[in-house]
Amino acid sequence: MRYPRLRLRCSILFGLIILSLFCFVTFNTILWSTTEPEPQEHIPQPPKPPVDIPLWSAIGHENIYDIKATKILKLTNHASSITGERIEELYQLVRSAKDDHVKNPYSRDSTWSLEKFVGKIFNNTTNDASKRDDTADSNRKKARKHNSTNVDETTTEHDKKQLRYFIHRAMAKWKKRHLNDKIITLGDLLHDTLAQDDPKRLNTTWFQFTKTVTNLRVYNIYSSEYTNLFKYLQYGEITEANEMPQGTQIKIILDLPNGFQGLLKPFRVPRNYQTPSDHFYFSDVERHHAEIAAFHVDKVLGFNRVPPVIGRIFNITKDIREKATSELAGSFFISPANNTCFRGHCSYYCDTGHAVCGKPGDHLEGSVQVLLPRPPEIDWQKLTHPYRRSYSSTKKADWETNENYCYEYIMIDEDYHNRLMLDMMDLAAFDFIIGNLDRHHMMRISSFGNNTSLIYVDHGRSFGRYDYDDLSILTPIRHCCFFRYTTFKRLYRVYKQGLSKLVSKSLKNFEGLQMILIDEHLTAIDRRLEIIFAHLDACIKIYTVKGVMIDDGID
Ligand SMILES: Nc1ncnc2c1ncn2[C@@H]1O[C@H](COP(=O)(O)OP(=O)(O)OP(=O)(O)O)[C@@H](O)[C@H]1O
Ligand SMILES: [Mn+2]
Question: Which value does ipTM take for this structure?
Fold first, then answer.
């Protein structure tokens, strides 16, 4: 009797031991699975969020280290609405249109005339004669004061077709007249005056360079003068540093060896600086890296219309202060951080709070652009851009409220019945790519006559944003819907090769300063190029390829 009971007790005890062992193991497994640390693999740090550096702190920011900062997570991407296939299709369409010899895609109505149309707009003009521009001789100026509220009723679809016919005919005539124009060089223009007034300058390297500047291109990348020019700009000993009187922000004219002069724009903000969204373009700070980048973009596009610029490292004391005119020298001081600084004299950012400072000490980065001869040696024409912004925080410009602006202001203006019309479109495409809202004037050397390219200067306010594409810069193209065949081909060529690739390669090979364009800007220029094609596509859908594209004989 005793043994079976003992056996039962033993089995119960054994069962209990097994059960508690089981519970222990299970509990431990659960416990360890929740507290055991992850296997020690490398855990990547999450990328830092975007840093918009506000202007007031950006001016005091570090240079070299900052430029490597900021990878942004997400762009406010304006994906363009055009596909790669459509761009190919457009290219084929444009190419075959160029080869087909239809003279004018529009047909003429002999009862319509430009004079009558101008008269019609002019009748809509406010009768207040005192408001009219008495000195104006061009139709645009005559029509300037017309009442834009009546505009839509004024210009009919028929008027538009006739105006487009008129422009195509004017351009064909212009092309014929200028087809055999001789290329003129700046050297040709300067020669006689220099021979008379200052013959020694004829023997300078600078004069040799002016012989490579023509009415069509500001430089020739294949010339040795072009290659040598950069050595002067980048390393040439500075003999005098003088403030440039024109313009709103500090710029210094440097006298360099062998007759060269350079225009210095100093470092003000790091490469990843974005224009604060509450800032207007007209109070934006100028960026030396934007000047450099704009030059490379223009060069890659093959326009060669931006005077060569290169980055340079200065010793602010030896290169600038010791060479400065007394006025500039008087604005130097040593900052609390022991850096050498100067204020300069200008209407924006020329106070102690916004001084240009070496960092550290005497080390200053800047862009140096070759200074082309100016009056009285060479005459420039400074044309107010008809699509200029209002430069006011409260007013809008006429073109912003009048969709017919191109028909009513530009196409009737004889100043635009020539290559200038398409030069303005080229400029719009360029400015859109670099994000430049500050094109208040168009500049060209009038001593070259009227078959001359625009010269693109002043890009310090471009590349202000990489996360935003300002479509309003393309308004001339959207409104007028005219475009040069050769420019289309140019854009297509860089599109195929990759604009950003070409630009970064150009910067890598020819620019000494590092990381002039951060990746976000490089992404932006590719995106913008596609947007230009999308705009041209929209024009072509309305006006046909032949109605939009023009061959004015200019490459
Ligand atoms: N490389 C150059 N060669 C000759 N002249 C130049 C060159 N760059 C600029 N200029 C002249 O100097 C003027 C002022 O230069 P820039 O436009 O760069 O300065 P800015 O301060 O931006 O002027 P603004 O405030 O009027 O826009 C230009 O309008 C042009 O006439
Ligand atoms: Mn400017």
Answer: 0.96
* Phi, psi for 271 (deg, rounded to 5): -65, -25
Amino acid at 71: K
Token pair, residue 240, equals 């005098």
Which residues, 6+ apart, have CB-to-CB distance to 455 below 8 Å?
Answer: 218, 305, 306, 307, 372, 443, 444, 445
Q: How far apart are CA 386 and CA 424, in angstroms?
A: 9
Atom 12 of ligand 1: nearest residue by CA position: 246
Give the 3-state secondary structure of 148-181.
HHHHHHHCCHHHHHHHHHHHHHHHHHHHHHHCCC
Q: Ligand 1 site: residues with CB under 6 angstroms?
A: 246-249, 251, 263, 307, 369, 371-372, 374, 443, 457-458, 460
Give the residue, out of 190, 233, 246, 306, with the most ligand 1 atoms within 8 A of its beta carbon, to mutate for a pocket test.
246
Write out pLDDT tens, residues 474-521.
999 999 999 999 999 999 999 999 999 999 999 999 999 999 999 999
- The size of the chain, in residues, is 555
Radius of gyration from C-alpha coordinates of the chain: 32
Q: And the tokens for 36?
A: 């055991």
- Three-state DSSP at 384 gives strand
Residue 372 in marked binding region: yes
Is 548 annotated as belonging to a binding site? no
For ligand 1, atom 8, the nearest C-alpha belongs to 457
**DSSP sequence for 390-443:** --SSS---HHHH-TTHIIIIITT-GGGSSHHHHHHHHHHHHHHHHT-----EEE
Q: Determine the distance separating the centroid of ligand 2 and the alpha carbon of 58, expressed in angstroms.
A: 20
Query: Taking the complete model, does pTM exceed 0.80, yes or no?
Result: yes
